[in-house]
Amino acid sequence: MAKLILKFNNEVIDHIDVVQGDMKMGRKPTSDVVLDNLAVSGTHANIFTIGEDSFVQDMGSTNGTFVNNKKITKHHLRNGDVIAIGKHSLIFVSEVTQQESTEDFAKTVVINPSAFDTPKPAAAKPRHVDTMETEVSKTSKEDRIGALFVLSGANSGKRIELTKSMTSL
């Protein structure tokens, strides 16, 4: 599991576990990671984690989000990356190394679809327009009528019959 080491003016304030899904960072007290500093926007940045991969994204903040001293809009986090938000810094510590991530890729099996017999769809019977027209005309008129019910407003409770193929309201 990845962690964030939260620092303010180079002093460690907290260790935060990175959870799956969204982690909102900002000045608002409803943020998952509250950064109480005027240089931090209310909703400043977001960390999104899927599996072992974490990403940081700036949420349109006023002063920007920086990773390793470079301004970012979105960045794939790696072990040791330093996220700077205002006077706060968050060090991303991941237990999954780049080598382990590459080893998982090596375990991927690629299957050639042509090696398997795939069932072929049944051939469709050709149908002529004349046959289709007679089939449509055989259905009763009641089966083809639709209706709308007005739920609110001046015409509340009114039923509008849909008798044409296209009805404009």
What is the gist of this entry?
By secondary structure, the protein is mostly beta strands.
What spatial order of strands do you see in the largest sheet?
A: 2-1-11-10-7-8
- Please report the distance between the alpha carbons of the first and last residues: 56 Å
H/E element order = EEEEEEEEEEEHHEE
Q: Specify the number of helices.
A: 2
Q: What is the rounded Rg?
A: 30 Å
Sheet having the most strands? 6 strands, antiparallel
CATH architecture of the largest domain: Sandwich
Overall shape: flat
Q: Helix coverage percent of residues?
A: 10-25%
CATH names the topology of the largest domain as: Tumour Suppressor Smad4
Low-confidence stretches: none
What structural category characterises the helix and strand content?
Answer: mainly beta
Task: Characterise the protein shown here.
The relative contact order is 0.12. The strands form three sheets. The chain has a six-stranded antiparallel beta sheet with strand order 2-1-11-10-7-8, with no helix packed on it. The mean pLDDT is 80. 11% of the residues lie in helices and 36% in strands. It is mainly β and 169 residues long. It has two domains: 3-104, Tumour Suppressor Smad4, CATH 2.60.200.20; 138-162, no CATH class. Strand 10 and strand 11 (88-93) form a beta hairpin.
